[in-house]
Design brief:
CATH superfamily of the largest domain: NAD(P)-binding Rossmann-like Domain
Strand content: 15-25%
Structural class: alpha/beta
Helix content: 25-40%
Radius of gyration: 19 Å
Number of strands: 13
Distance between the termini: 46 Å
Oligomer: single chain
Number of helices: 10
Order of helices and strands: EHEEHEHHEHEEHEEHEEHEEHH
Number of domains: 2
Strand order of the largest sheet: 3-2-1-4-5-6-10
Shape: globular
Largest sheet: 7 strands, parallel
């Protein structure tokens, strides 16, 4: 029986490596392409590795042919909002340039199935919550704009030729493999939960909380946090649907439940038994008070519901990667 082969660009990164794990466990063969700019070679454990830049169209097409890939999952991208504001050209080069090269390589190699790692950053600051797939897409930074441009490129290519796609718009990916095979590693680290755990372990200075006067129950920003294992499993479900012949689609991937920064701090303290030192800072421009996904469409199309995305479980799985011992459920 043929084992479908999936090219995973950015497969040495945090989300991409977890997707490779889920693909392998579901019976697919992942093939990783990564330039290791931000990825980690030791996170590639479930299939062949090809070190190259996704913007190298010819080399990418050759890899697709070499491994006889049936589909592509595209994670390779620069993904720091602050860096995108300081270096917009880099983001349009890496993200949009990478997408141009990938679409051409897929066309040249005769592969027409694509699962794309997009972002809720394409929505910008929403007028209405929760955010549905039909909410206006008005990104407020170059990172979000680059992701929206990639979505538009994919849609245009599909309209012009033989391409079916899934656009998966993430909310806040976090946690780690429940069995400890992979952990979150970013340099620099900008994600809230790792920063909270780094502060708890004294590997970093006190956490900076940007804004404590928002119109939320405790004054701090509320976001929708989804466990990376759940997120990766949703990619496999999306791929399975496309390979089964479905039409293209776009989906939000979140939990539909928001948590504030102070809630995360309190939960991390309960899970690890360590205090989380923090300091209040002024609000950052453009930070909306609340971002929460409407998850109805993911439930309808993919029968997808998160399994590991309670806040204590997310932190319990992430904590060992920062040298912290997590309590069991009885501690909470």
């Amino acid at each position: 029986m043929h084992r479908p082969v999936v090219l995973v660009t950015g497969g040495a990164g945090f989300i991409g490596s977890h997707a490779c794990l889920q693909l392998a466990e579901a019976g697919y063969q992942p093939v990783v392409v990564d330039n290791l700019r931000t990825g980690n070679r030791d996170a590639v454990k479930w299939g062949p590795f090809e070190q190259l830049d996704v913007r190298d169209c010819g080399a990418l097409a050759a890899v697709i042919r070499k491994h006889r890939c049936d589909a592509v999952m595209h994670f390779a991208a620069a993904a720091y909002v602050g860096e995108s504001v300081a270096k917009p050209g880099l983001y349009y080069d890496l993200n949009c340039g990478g997408m141009i090269a990938l679409l051409k390589a897929m066309q040249d190699a005769g592969v027409g199935t694509l699962v794309f790692s997009s972002s809720c950053a394409t929505y910008g600051v929403p007028d209405v919550l929760p955010i549905t797939e039909g909410s206006p897409q008005n990104p407020v930074n170059p990172y979000g704009r680059s992701k929206l441009m990639c979505e538009q490129m994919i849609s245009d290519q599909a309209a012009a030729g033989d391409l079916r796609f899934a656009l998966l718009r993430y909310f806040n990916a976090c946690g780690a493999d429940p069995q400890g095979r992979l952990f979150e590693r970013h340099d620099p680290e900008t994600h809230l939960i790792p920063l909270v755990l780094m502060a708890a372990s004294r590997r970093a200075p006190p956490l900076q909380v940007f804004g404590t006067d928002y119109n939320t129950p405790d004054g701090t920003c509320i976001r929708d946090y989804i466990h990376v294992t759940d997120l990766a499993r949703a990619h496999v479900l999306a791929l399975r649907r496309l390979l089964g012949g479905s039409d293209s689609f776009a989906l939000n991937l979140g939990t539909g439940t928001g948590h504030s920064i102070k809630q995360i701090i309190r939960t991390a303290e309960a899970v690890t038994g360590q205090p989380v030192p923090w300091k209040a800072q002024a609000r950052r421009p453009g930070d909306p008070p609340e971002l929460v996904a409407d998850t109805d469409m993911a439930a309808r199309l993919l029968a997808f519901r998160p399994r590991h995305s309670t806040l204590p479980e997310i932190i319990r799985h992430a904590a060992p990667g920062f040298g912290l011992e997590a309590c069991d459920d009885a501690c909470l």
